[in-house]
Amino acid sequence: MNGQDIVVYEHEMKNYEMMLTEFYDANSSNAVKLCMQEEFDKFGERDKCWVQCCYNLENSKNQYLLMFSLNIMEMIINKKWEKMTFKSQETLREAIFNHIVMKHKEYPKYMISKMIKLLVDIARNDWPLRYPNFIDHIAQLLVDPEQVLLGLSFLLLSSEEFISPKEDLLGKRKHELKVNFLKHIPKLFEILSDILKNAHKTSNSDEIYEAVTKVFSDMFTWLPFEKHLTPDLLHVLMPLGKKENATSINTLTIFNEVLSKSYTQTEDRYFILSELCLYTFRLVENIIAVPEIGFVSEAYMVIVIEILSVVIRKYWNYLDSHFNNGEFLELLLQFTFRQDVLDCYYQCLDIWCSIFEALTDRPGCIEKYRHIFLDLVERVTQKINTFGSINDETYDDDGQTECQIFLNKNIEIISNVAHLYPVIAVPVVDNWKVYINDYITILNSPMLLENFKDSKCMFLVPSTRTLTSLSGYYEDSMKIAITKMLNDIAIQGVATTPLYQLPVSQSTTKTLIQIQSEILTALSRWMHLLNNNKQFCMEQNREKLFSVLVTSLQDTRQPTQIHDACGVLLPTVTEPMLVHITEYTSLLEQLLSPFLDGSITLNHLNKKTRLSVRVTSLKFLLTCPSQEEEIKVLVLMNYLKSLAPSGLNDLKMLTDVLVSSGPYKMSTRRIIYRSVEPCLIEAVTHLKNDMQSESSLNPQMEKCERVITFLSEMYELLHDTMSPQFVQILMQTFVDLDMIWSASTMLTIKMLEVLSLIVKHSSKSNKEFTSVVIKLGLEKLIPLVASNCYPPTVSALYNLLFCVLMYKWRYFFPASPSLTVLHPANDNNIDNSEQFTTILEVIGYSFMTNDISIFSQNLKAIEELHIQWNLYAKEYFKHYFLSKYMTVLLNVMVNKSHTILSDEISMTIYNMASVDFDYFFSKFLPDYLKQTDNIRNDQRQFLRQKRMQPVKELPTFMINLAQLTNDIRCSKQI
C-alpha cells in the first residue's frame, strides 16, 4: 500500500466516520438516514471494499465505523467469499487475525468476539485445505500467556460451530469438519491441561479457569470420553468443582456429561466413574458440613443435584457395594432437608422417587435400607407440616397453587414408602385421629380458638391428604370408620356457625377454612364407601350431608374455598339419591328449587362449582318421576333458558351443563331436544341474519362463533332425536353461508366440523345433501391445493371429504343385495365417479406437500378407508390410483420428506401392494425405476436384482422397501 493509497483510504475513513456519526445522531432526519443508507449499501457492493475495511480497523477509533467495517466483512465472507481470489482471501484472513492479536486490549469484547466469529465462519468452509493454519493460529494463542483467553474463545466457538453447524452445511462437509477437528483434539487437550496446571501462576487465574472449563464442558458434550478423559485430566479438574463459582459449575457440567453417557467400561473408565461417584458425595458432605446452606448459589446447587441424581440412578450397584451401611442414602437424606429453595427440594424428592422405582427388582435393598426410608417418612412429615407458610392463593397454568404442589410432592414420597412398607399407613391414621380429635374439641368449644396455635389442628390438612393417598392400605372396616368420621365433621363444621366466621385472627381464619375444605374434599374421595352402607343410609346421614352442602352453596357468606369443596362433594352425595329417586324426591325438590327457579343466581360461585350445582339440578329434573313428560319439557325448557340469561351471547354454560350431565338414554335425549329446540331454531335464525348483515363483522363474528359451537355440541349430543326438518335447515344454513368462508378462519373451521358431524350422522338416503357437501368441499379445497396453500381450514376441508367417503360410501359404491351377499368382491360398481375421482386426486396432491400434519392426516384417512371399505382392492382405485399413490409415497421415502412417518408410509405401501403382489414386483417397481431420473442403467440393474425379490411377509417387505429407497437415494447422489 503506497503513500497515495494511504491518503485515499484515510480520506474515505474520515468521510465514513462523519457519515456514521451523523447517521446514529438522534437529531438526524429519516430522509438523511435513508440517503446515507443507500451510500452504505453502495460501499458494500464495491470491488475490494474489504481493503478499506481492514484499513478502518487498523486506524479508526470510531466504534460506529469499526462495527460497520466488521458487518461489511461478514457480508463478504457469507455471500461473496467464493468470488474472491485465493490471495485476497488469505490477505483478509491474516488481516482479521492480526487485528485480533494486536488490538484485543483496545477493542470492546463484543467486537473481538465478532472478529473471531468471522474467522471461524471462514474455517467452516475452507479449513483445512484453503485455511491450513487455522488450528495453528489457535495453538499459537493458547501457548501465549497474554493471548490465552483469545485462544480459548477461538476454541470454544470452533467446537460449537464445527460440531453443531447450521443447516447451511452439507452433511458430507459436517462429517469432514468433525473428523478433522478430532485429529487435533489430543494436542489441544494437552495444551489445555498445561494451562489448567499453570493457571494459578497468572494474575487472571479465575478468568482462565472459567474459560478452560467452559471449553471442556462444551467439548465433552460430543467427544468420545474413552479416548480423551484421562485420570490425569480428571485429577486436574476435580479441585475446580469444589469452590462455588462459574468455574465450578462448568466443571460439574463436565462430570455430569461424563456420568450421564453410556459407554464400554474399560479399566480407566471404571476408575474414572468410581472416582466421580465418590467425588459427588464429597461435594454433598461439604455442603452439609456448612451450618447455613444459604451461601451456596441456586445454580451450583442445581448442578450438584443433577449429578447426584445421575449417580444414584445409574451407579446404584457400585454405591450399594461401596457404602456397606447405606451412608450414601444417609447423605442424600441430610442433603434433601437442607434445601431452602423449593425447586431444589423437589428435585431431591424426584431422586428418592427414582430410587423407589428402581427398588422394585432389588428386594434385598428394601429391607437393608428400611431404617433410612422410615426416617425419610418422618422427615417428610415434619416438612409437610410447614405448608402454612407456602402460597395457597395464586394458581399456575395447571390450576394448582404452590401449596398444593408442595403437599402433593411430599405425599407422593410417603405413598412410595407405604408401597414398600404398608405398615407405615397405620401411624398415619393414629396421628390423624389425634389431630381430628383436637379439631372436634374446638368445634364443640369454640372458645378454645384462643389457643388455636397450640393445638394440633394445624397439621390436619396435610395429614388428611396423606391419609387419603394411603386409603388402599386400610381394611374396609377402618375405611368406613374414617369416612363416617369425615362425614360427621363435614356436617358439624358447616351446619352450625362455622369456626371461620367467628372473630379470630386472619391467619387462624385462613387455616380453619383450609381444614374444613380439606375435610369436604377428602370426603368426596371416600364417600363411595358409604353409598352402599345400610346403617349409614338408615341413619339419614346422607340427607343431612346433602342439606348441609346445598345450604352452604346457597350461602353467599361462605368462603370460595368452602363453596368449591362443597361443589366437588355434591355429585358423590347426590348420585345415589338419584338412583333411589322415589325416596328422596321431596328433599331434592325442596333444596334444589332455588337453583331451578332462578331465585338464587349462583353468581357468587366460581365457574366450576356453578357447573357442578347446575348439573346436579338438571339430573334431578330429568330423573324426577313425579312429572309427566309434557310438564317435564316445560320445566326443563324454562331451566335451560335460565342457564343462558343473555340469550345467544351466553350459551357456554348451557352446553357445558347438558354435555356434563350425560350420557343420556334415548327417552331422556328426546325430552332434552324438545326442551332445547326453540333455542336451536333461534340460534340458526340469528346466525343467518348476523352473517348476512352489512354492519361491522367483528363483534358478530364472536357471537357467530359461540352460536356455531353451540349448534355443533347440540348436534353431536342430540342428532338421533332431532327432527328431519331441523337437520335439513341446519345443513342448508351452513352450505348457504358463503361469505363465512373468507370472513373468519375459526368460523370456517367450526362450520366444517359441524358439516362433518352431519355427514357422519345424517340419513344414508340423503344423496342430495351429500352431493352439495362434496361440491362445497371441493370448490373450497381445489384452489388451495392448486396454489400449494395450506391455511388452517385445509385440514377441516380434508376431514369433511374423508367423512363423506367413510360414512357415505354407498353414494359411490351402491350395494347390490344379490351380489354383495354371494360375491362380496364384486362390490365394484361406482356411481358419481367424477366426484370420487376428484376427491382422491386432491388427497393424492396432499402427499406431495411439505405440511406433515396434512400428509399424516390423509395417510391415516386412506388407511381407515381401506380397513373399512377395502379401498385399495376396488377395481376403480386399482385402475386409476394405485400406481399413482404408490409412486408418490415411494418418492416421499426416497426424498426423506417426512422421515418421522417412514413406518406409516411403508405400511400403507405394503397394504396397497398386497392387493396384487405380482403386479407390484413384476410391473410397478420396474416401471418406477425406469421413471426415476439420475440413475445409471447398471444401478437400475443392481436394484432390480437385489431389492425387488418378491416378499409378502410384512417385516421383510418393510426392511427391503427401506433398503430400496435408501439405495435409490444414494444412487442419485453419486
TrEMBL record:
One of its GO terms (molecular function) is nuclear export signal receptor activity. Keywords: Cytoplasm, Nucleus, Protein transport, Transport. Residues 108-239 form the Exportin-1/Importin-beta-like domain. Its main location: cytoplasm. InterPro entries: ARM-like, ARM-type_fold, Exportin-1/Importin-b-like, XPO6. It is found in: Cytoplasm; Nucleus. It comes from the Eukaryota. GO terms for biological process: protein export from nucleus. GO terms for cellular component: cytoplasm; nucleus. Pfam families: Xpo1. Belongs to the exportin family. This is Exportin-1/Importin-beta-like domain-containing protein. It comes from Acyrthosiphon pisum.
